[in-house]
Amino acid sequence: MSKAMVVAGVMSGTSADGVDVALCRIAPGAGDAPLRVKLIGHAAFGYPKALRAAVLAAMDARAMSVADMSRLNWRLGEVYADAVEAAAKQFGVKLGLVGCHGQTVYHQGAASRFLGSEVRCTWQIGEASVIAERLRVPVVSDFRPADLAASGQGAPLVPMLDYVMFRSATVSRVLQNLGGIANLTAIPAGASEESVMAFDTGPANMVIDGCMVRLFGRGYDRGGAVARRGRVIDAVVERVLRQKYFSALPPKSCGREEFGDTFVERFLAMCRKAGATDADVVATATTLTARSIVEAYERFVWGHLGQTAPLATRIEYVVAGGGAKNETLMQMLRDGLEPLGVKVRLMEELGIPAQAKEGVGFALLAWLSWFGLPGNIPSATGAKRAVVLGKVTRG
Questions:
Q1: 146 sits in which H/E element
Q2: What letter would DSSP give residue 242?
Q3: How far apart are CA 380 and CA 157, in angstroms?
């Protein structure tokens, strides 16, 4: 059987704003390129307002019954099937496989005591059986648990794509994704897989969006316009950046458990106490994202690149995700990173639309899983070994 295959990668991130479908042609490569991944097309589908509200409620277990959680799991399966079906029709392709990440409702990468034992856990919903039955193709889903079972954080998983597609013999690259959470992959020039560093730097859009919803009744700050007219409350940013997460050594991961609704309410209270206007709050949240990324680069990444590749090597900082459309945030990143000798670029410049990247990543992971190949990078997740990710539901 040929290993070349058209795969749909389906991603709905921590911002819970909708579904991205990336259609890819994936095949074995040759020589230094062990795999060939080509993006055929990308389509985005927003969640209906009521569905998004239900998804956000599911991220707070106190607000949803077990029955409604089960119903939401199945409803999301229908939504994902609709999205993949529409994308395949739009681009005129015949699918061989679907890789569906699902919607994360809880993720705890670090172990904590529960019922007498140390437990790590993660939960992504969106019933794969619905997708497989509707599309009559196999579906690989639930990618994170295998890495957790191998003592990893279960995140980040996109570094495998970063390594396969973007490593270079002459350029060190940092691939930064700005979804709800900000995560990066650092690939030194000429890197082996063992030299890849990856971790979540903290919030990207999550806190900004949370403030926008509460203060302006809008889901996000389009183009960073609100932040641009606000005043940054530096004391609040400094106080937040003293939280233990930001200084903890990689590998590490975070989510709504650290930077969701509870954090946003506390952040708003700090800003109000400092006399912030509504626009000031959003400017301060945007600065928090930018500063946490720049400080993570200075604290953890810069030295890693210097140890594993010549410091004279050119360093590119490539940004993807919805936050790349926030012009104020992007300017803050340039202002913080470029004085360090880093060239900031957009993912589109490397041939992948910013919003499509994570979908492409889960298409690749699905292909690897289907052929029994590992999909995690232990140096990124902290797992004790490389493992095959995901569970297969046959269509």
A1: helix 145-149
A2: T
A3: 8
Amino acid at 37: V
Give the C-alpha separation, 91 to 93, whole Å: 6
At CA 359, angle to CA 51 and CA 255, rounded to 5? 60
Q: How far are the Cα atoms of 3, 219, 223, 327 from residue 331, in angstroms, in the given order?
A: 43, 21, 11, 6
- Across the beta sheet with 314-320, the strand order is 197-203, 181-187, 171-178, 314-320, 342-346
144 Cβ contact partners less than 8 Å away, ≥ 6 residues apart: 107, 122, 124, 154, 155, 157, 389
H or E stretch covering 272 = helix 261-273
Predicted confidence (pLDDT) per residue in 314-324, tens digit: 899 999 988 99
DSSP-derived pairing of the beta strands 171-178 and 314-320: parallel
Contact criterion met (CB below 8 Å) for 362 and 143: yes
- Determine the pLDDT at residue 1: 46
Lowest mean pLDDT among 154-163, 206-215, 222-231: 154-163
- For the entire predicted model, the pTM comes to 0.87
Q: What is the DSSP string of 49-75?
A: HHHHHHHHHHTSGGGS-HHHHHHHHHH
Distances (CA, A) of 81 to 251, 327, 362, 363, 365: 33, 33, 16, 15, 19
Tell me the per-residue pLDDT of 143-156, one tens digit each, with 9 for 90 and over: 999 999 999 999 88
Q: What is the mean pLDDT of residues 31-47?
A: 87
- CA–CA dist 375, 52 (Å, integer): 30
Q: What is the DSSP string of 295-328?
A: HHIIIIIHHHHHHHS-TTSEEEEEEESGGGG-HH
Range 230-248 average pLDDT:
97
For the chain, helix (H) and strand (E) counts, in that order, are 16, 12
Domains and CATH numbers, the chain: 5-153+355-393 (3.30.420.40), 160-350 (3.30.420.40)
Neighbours of 63 (CB within 10 A): 12
